[in-house]
Design goal:
Blueprint: H1 2-17, E1 49-53, H2 67-79, E2 84-89, E3 94-96, E4 100-103, E5 110-115, E6 118-120, E7 135-140, E8 143-148, E9 152-154, H3 158-162, E10 178-183, E11 186-196, E12 203-206, E13 209-219, E14 230-233, E15 236-246, E16 252-254, E17 258-268, E18 274-279, E19 285-299, E20 305-310, E21 314-330, E22 334-340, E23 355-368, E24 372-377, E25 384-395, E26 403-407, E27 409-418
Parallel strand pairs: 1-2, 2-5, 3-6, 4-7, 5-8, 6-9, 7-10, 8-11, 9-11, 10-12, 11-13, 12-14, 13-15, 14-16, 15-17, 16-18, 17-19, 18-20, 19-21, 20-22, 21-23, 22-24, 23-25, 24-26, 25-27
The protein binds 2-acetamido-2-deoxy-beta-D-glucopyranose (4 copies).
GO molecular function: polygalacturonase activity
EC number: 3.2.1.15
Signal peptide: 1-21
């Protein structure tokens, strides 16, 4: 309630005053944007640091599976009583890895996985069993974990894409692995890595807390199905910044149970843009709140900044800010869709809906690939509330015009807003 009050009193302030001085601390908790230095100073304090090189545990860059060797090296680094232990993947080599789960909690106070070399997933689906089907590399229950090193993780996803029911309509829909999963990790840093051609999502943060993900490059072809760049679920206090993401699905997707999410300095495309949702699938409950997305460039994506919910769900998406966003040839630059339907079967009309409220769009400019550049398709029973637009300019390159479609939305506008929702009757 307090957060909501702050947010809306801020909106009132903003629109009365016209001065822009947004301070995310107003509604992100003080701890949510960690203030530790971004870069290591290179100094290792007086504490000891012990390095566990995977090669010393039997890893070989010769095209044979290395998951057992990596597991042994992980056991050693995790159970080390040193202040800081480092699992090292040496540079200039490529290690083949079958699905690998690395579990905590660890004895080591800090654990760094230094991936200097490259990791490659097998290209055969037979290397996955039913139990490990949802990951390629998974970290679980680890605190004070840093994963970095400049290396590349290659998911070899082609075989999974070809056999996806989204590509071949005659095959059944099966799950596919996420390249890099962090589950229940706290005080997590993931940085300076390239992740490419994942089987499904590239990086997932699931039920994590206090996360910084930055300097990541994520690449997959535009046609690859479900290859979201970074997927955030059930995670609190997460900051994602300075990333280059181009895939076949959302660059960043933020779904249920996520709170205090700060996304900044992202270049996205190709792909489906930055998404909150989908939320409320199969009549489920979902809560997402306090999301700030700023300084994002989107190039040729099928959506820009999107909120999507299924009919029949419960819960809310609230206190969401998209600002300082530049788009080039984006198909649905600003979109809220409370009638999202991605299933094979058509979705039927339902009255319940995940509420969408307190969404602000500020300083969003660029070109739209379609005529409708602002599209609020909200529920007639649970309309979108407190939607604010300020300083918007979205045009189509050929006509320098574009339209808005604003259905069941209570919106306010300030500054120059083009296209505007004003003058459009809510249905
Ligand atoms: C290591 O762990 C301690 C607490 O266990 C933490 O305060 C510190 O920031 C961690 N990181 C490094 C790089 O030492
Ligand atoms: C689609 O799947 C069917 C059934 O497995 C298979 O026979 C067909 O060759 C596949 N099509 C393509 C284009 O891969
Ligand atoms: C803009 O996007 C549309 C739809 O994705 C695409 O067909 C078209 O080639 C793109 N135009 C340019 C100039 O990239
Ligand atoms: C809103 O969504 C519904 C369901 O997908 C669709 O039938 C309708 O055409 C959409 N309205 C607009 C104006 O896009």
């Amino acid at each position: 309630m307090a957060i909501q009050f702050l947010f809306f009193s801020f909106l009132v302030f903003l629109f009365n005053d016209g001065v822009f001085s947004f301070n995310p601390d107003l509604w992100l908790t003080p701890n949510s944007i960690p203030r530790a230095p971004l870069y290591d100073t290179g100094r290792q304090s007086s504490h000891e640091q012990i390095v566990f090189n995977v090669d010393h545990y039997g890893a070989k860059a010769d095209g044979i599976d290395n998951s057992e060797a990596f597991k042994r090296a992980w056991e050693a680094s995790c159970s080390s009583t040193s202040h800081s232990s480092v699992l090292l993947v040496p540079p200039h080599k490529t290690y083949l890895l079958k699905p690998l789960e690395l579990q905590g909690p660890c004895e080591a106070k800090n654990i760094t996985v230094m991936i200097k070399g490259n990791l490659k997933a097998p290209s055969e689906r037979a290397d996955w069993s039913r139990e490990d089907l949802n990951y390629w590399i998974k970290f679980k229950n680890v605190r004070h974990l840093t994963v970095k090193g400049g290396g590349e993780l290659d998911g070899s996803g082609q075989i999974w894409w070809q056999n996806s029911c989204k590509i071949n309509k005659s095959v059944p829909c099966l799950d596919a692995p996420t390249a890099l999963v962090f589950h229940r990790c706290e005080q997590l840093r993931v940085r300076d890595l390239t992740i490419r051609d994942s089987q499904k999502f590239h990086v997932v943060f699931s039920q994590c807390a206090n996360v910084k993900a930055f300097h990541l490059t994520i690449r997959a072809p535009q046609w690859s199905p479900n290859t979201d760049g970074i997927h955030v679920t059930g995670t609190q206090d997460i900051m994602i910044f300075n990333c280059l993401i181009g895939t076949g699905d959302d660059c960043i997707s933020i779904v249920k149970g996520s709170k205090n999410v700060y996304v900044k300095d992202i270049v996205c495309g190709p792909g489906h843009g930055i998404s909150i949702g989908s939320l409320g699938k199969k009549n489920s409950e979902a809560h997402v709140s306090n999301v700030l997305v700023e300084k994002v460039t989107l190039i040729g994506t099928t959506n820009g900044v999107r909120i999507k919910t299924w009919q029949g769900g419960y819960g809310y998406a609230e206190n969401i800010v998209f600002q300082d966003i530049f788009m080039t040839n984006v198909s649905n630059p600003i979109i809220i869709n409370q009638h999202y339907c991605d299933s094979r079967k058509p979705c039927y009309q339902q009255n319940a809906a995940v509420a969408v409220r307190g969404v602000r769009y500020k300083n969003i400019r660029g070109t739209s690939a379609t005529d409708i550049s602002v599209n609020f398709n909200c529920s007639s029973t649970v309309p979108c509330r407190d939607v604010a637009l300020q300083d918007i300019s979205l045009v189509t390159p050929h006509s320098f015009a574009s339209r808005s479609s604003c259905i069941n939305v209570h919106s306010a506008e300030a500054g120059t807003v083009f296209p505007s929702c004003n003058g459009i009757k809510n249905q």
